[in-house]
Amino acid sequence: KNLMGVFLSTDGGNTWIHKDNGLPSGENVEIRGLAVKPGDSNTVFAAGDLEDIGPFMGQFQATAGIVYRTTDGGQNWSQVLSGGNLFKDIIIDPRNPNIVYVASGFFDRQQKDKLEGVYKSTDGGNTWNQINSGIRNLYVTTLKFDPKNPQVI
Description:
By secondary structure, the protein is mainly beta.
């Protein structure tokens, strides 16, 4: 059986438990990034997209972004952000775990709505704002903190 979704292992990967209650399901759902809140492994963010599966004859798939959060170790998930293009990298500020960033846009998918760039939450994912000042290309596929200076993304 081909299972999709989010899984949890508590024994180093020997066994896995399906943990996606509340996440959308189906082959048009892709989870592309996970971020675990530092100091609270029960809080996890899942970033991805919902694709319109259709003809591939030279056309890109249209996609919309989704971000879900669990605060109970994956028992239950709820959507905290939706967007007009897929979300991929999601990162949590190592200095302040209530600050979360997510990248939107990918070159091989057509956005459903508009290009959105980078979103930031300062309240643990409850509310989000775009922070694109100075970004010229809103196809942002990767976000990483500088390991020597976490003030730099």
